[in-house]
Amino acid sequence: SLADPVLAEGLAAWRARFTELPRDTIGLSAASVVERGAILPSLHRTPVPILAISGDEDWVYPADHAERIAAAVQDGRAAQVTAAGHSGIWERAGATNALIREWLDAH
After folding, report:
1. N or C: which end of the chain has fewer CB atoms below 10 A?
2. pLDDT in tens, 24-36
């Protein structure tokens, strides 16, 4: 969880790095995410299985986004990592890797 005091130092370091970047760099990065086209309408053409993972504390792409992605493809699954935000692979690596391992073993 991002509220975990153990992560406080690392989060503070990342915040400091981001705030030191030129504003135009941050603006360009943010714009590229915000302005990119939606992929959900074309996911039904995806010929491969998709595992959409979200953290239960992710406010960037909450669980309903993962559920919509999984529902859009023939072989999709949505999974949630508890006590994780948008970066579950770093916040809860063991739990996230277990989901991925289980998915790969099944496919």
Report:
1. C
2. 666 566 555 545 5
